[in-house]
Amino acid sequence: MSSIGEFEGKDIPESYYPKLVKELEPINKRLNAFLTISNPEGGFPFSVKDNICVNGVESRAGSRILKGYIPPFNATAVERMLNSGFGFLGKTNMDEFGFGSFGLNTEVPAKNPFDERYVAGGSSSGAAVATSILKYHVAISESTGGSIATPAAFCGVVGFTPTYGAVSRYGLIDYANSLDKIGVMARSAEDVRIVFDKVKGSDKYDTTCTDAKFTAKDKKKVFIIDQFTKGVDEKILSSFEKLVEKFKDMGYNVENREIRLAEKAIAAYYIIAMAESSTNLAKYTGFKYGLRNERFDEHYNEFFTKARKAFHKESKRRIVLGTMVRSASVRDRYYSKALKVRSLLLDEMNALLKEGFILSPVMPILTPKMAEAESLTPLEMYKSDMLTIPANLCGLPHISFPYAYEKGMPLGAQLITSQFNDYAIMDMVSKWEKDFEYRFKYNLGEL
Ligand code: GLN
Question: Where are the beta strands (DSSP E) in 16-137?
Fold first, then answer.
């Protein structure tokens, strides 16, 4: 059921938006979904992940180092939403620069609206929480390695990551340019489609952005991948088996297959992502953007070091590792090899996706409590991305949707398809939604 369609069919009084903001503010103080809240003048409310620039509104990618940076322009996706009559509601919380899976690598972490002791997921924590608590709202979000699918799964909403290059990255504060994709979170696949239609398409400011024709080819076949169930929590697997049965009822042939290189995807992804992010972070020196060090009499080493202390420890880790893997002495051992893995993995996945869709859980673990997630080592956190990374590494469109509730907490499944077949997986989730009702704990802004 499309909330955009429902909203547009109603008479919206002018008092709606100020009332919505008033209702949202106290709850946001607890859940930390929004970093800024604006008062839209009209239109269906949308939020924007903090790493996507909005003209005149502080945009700092969840980072202290960009505090005070107010872009003088809109990202293309934002511009297109505004031109289509949507109303900007605010910037959403995230792991600094997108580095994280649980939303904890930020100043004030967002909390899961189903139970505030649990994480909201990351890096697009705020976008998922906002979508989960607001009745009428869509989130413009971004994924590099799973930042849309993961929080969408933990917060029980639909999260769509398009084919790489479908949506212009102009105005996105880069994490890793060859991996970043702007996508959508919503409460239904239909809302995702409406928003995707508005924001996609070529843009003179982003040469990687394509005007390709997006299709909806239904292949009537679903693959379950051995490597995507190994190591997955038993509770998740038992409800996932029921989901697989439902797909059979929906008319899909289900087959078990292997993607042998999937096991190397995490290593390849983190090498490429860190190599690219370490170069992207080089521009935050306290000189040009955001937080400023005014001591211009200092030696440049001291000057830069002072400003760069503001980075979160996860960002520092990525600068060190990213710089290492692309240094001349080891580049062939790590970076070049990772690029080869990426292209071979894409070949392997493409061979399957020609015949059907890939279905898997989104996360191998149940939603962790804040303290549990905090106690994970960086490697354990990276490994929790094992199911979202393959599609992201290969630029393949994927959609995450709620399929069960375990002790009141939502579980998310993911469908992957071939490049440019983005509409097919939206259609499948729309079909799924006909017999499955999503649950939400809040419905702020109900009419
Ligand atoms: N967890 C992954 C990372 O830290 C993915 C995050 C993202 O998609 N931005 O890189």
Answer: 34-37, 45-49, 87-92
Which of the listed residues 92, 94, 95 should we mutate to test ligand 1's pocket, taking the one with most ligand atoms within 8 A of CB? 95
Mutate to test the pocket of ligand 1, among 175, 281, 318 (most ligand atoms within 8 A of CB): 175
Which alpha helices (H) appear in 175-232, and where do they start and end?
Answer: 189-199
Contact (Cβ atoms closer than 8 angstroms) between residue 270 and residue 385: no
Q: How confident is the model at residue 65 (pLDDT cuts 50, 70, 90)?
A: very high
Q: What is the pLDDT of residue 301?
A: 86
Cα(67) to centroid(ligand 1), Å = 21
Peptide bond into 3 cis (omega under 30): no
Q: How many CB atoms lie within 10 A of CB 135?
A: 17
**Chain segment 233-280, per-residue pLDDT in tens:** 999 999 999 999 999 999 999 999 999 999 999 999 999 999 999 999
The pLDDT score that the predictor gives to residue 411 is: 98
Two tokens at 54? 């909005």
Residue ranges of domains in the chain, CATH in brackets:
1-447 (3.90.1300.10)
In terms of pTM, does the model score above 0.70?
yes
Q: How many Cβ atoms from other residues are within 10 Å of residue 332's Cβ?
A: 9
Structure tokens at 175: 């994490």
Residues contacting ligand 1 via CB (< 6 Å): 98-101, 123, 143-147, 175, 273, 385
- For residue 385, which atom of ligand 1 is closest to its CA? 1
Active-site residues, by number, are 49, 123, 147
Cα 284 to its chain centre, rounded Å, is 23
CA dist., res. 34 & res. 154, Å (int): 17
356 CB contacts (<8 Å, ≥6 apart)?
Answer: 219, 220, 221, 222, 223, 252, 253, 255
CB of 4 closer than 8 Å to CB of 191? yes
Mean pLDDT for all residues in the chain: 96
Give dist(CA 397, CA 429) in Å, integer: 13
Distance (Å, whole) CA 418 – CA 425: 10
Which residues make Cβ contacts (< 8 Å) with residue 401, sequence separation at least 6?
Answer: 152, 158, 159, 189, 412, 413, 414, 415, 429, 432, 433
